[in-house]
Amino acid sequence: MDIQDGVVTARLSNDGCAAGFETACTPTRQRAEYQLTEGHAHGDKVAYRWEVNVPKDLRINAADFHLYAGRFLSGDKPALQFFVGHDYGYEISRKTCFGPIGFGEWHQVEVRIMWDSTKKKGLKDKTPGEIHVICDGKEVYSKTGRPNIKPDDTINLVLGLEGALKLADGDNVSVSYRNIEVGSW
């Protein structure tokens, strides 16, 4: 990861993990991520904000081309994930924040979450859990009324990239972030 003038750029290597960074790898995946140290749990109502720029020349053709560009993790298990790809853009749960035509520009992302682990008593029972994803001022994803974490979960925001260990020839994989904030709503 590179940091210059308040911009954090995560890159995946075409050669896999470099010496000294083996802990950021599994047998099939590599990571260039920053995990925020402040975690959140049941009852927390949090607004996470950042700006993201995917370069125009992003290219990912590796065999395992799932490219995560932002995750909310409980330990190493995802509660919510952002994906990026040159065919579909930057998205969450198949809802597009911005498409490939928006690559090369900065985009604002805000995720408002009421973390909730209340057990449902029945199908009609609603819990106070909420997830709202706003991209460039427009809500693109919303989910309410069900538990979104387990009772003892602590959730951490992770920004950067996680993708294939070995990239294909010609792959160019990076994403930049700035103005990262965590607050309440």
Keywords summarizing the entry:
185 residues; mainly beta; seven-stranded antiparallel sheet; six-stranded antiparallel sheet; 13 strands; 0% helix; globular
Account of the 3D structure:
With 185 residues, this protein is an all-beta fold. The protein has no helices and 13 strands.
* Separation, N- and C-terminal Cα atoms: 30 Å
Coarse morphology: globular
Alpha plus pi helix count:
0
Structural class computed from helices and strand pairing: mainly beta
Helix content: under 10%
Rounded radius of gyration (Å): 17 Å
Mean pLDDT: 88
Instruction: Sketch the topology as an H/E string, one letter per element.
Output: EEEEEEEEEEEEE
Largest sheet: 7 strands, antiparallel
The unreliable regions are: none
* Number of distinct beta strands: 13
Structure in a nutshell:
Helices cover about 0% and strands about 50% of the residues.
Give me the secondary-structure topology.
Layout: E1 2-4, E2 7-11, E3 29-35, E4 45-53, E5 68-74, E6 77-85, E7 89-92, E8 95-98, E9 106-114, E10 130-135, E11 138-144, E12 155-164, E13 174-184
Antiparallel strand pairs: 1-2, 2-13, 3-12, 4-9, 4-13, 5-6, 5-12, 6-7, 7-8, 9-10, 10-11
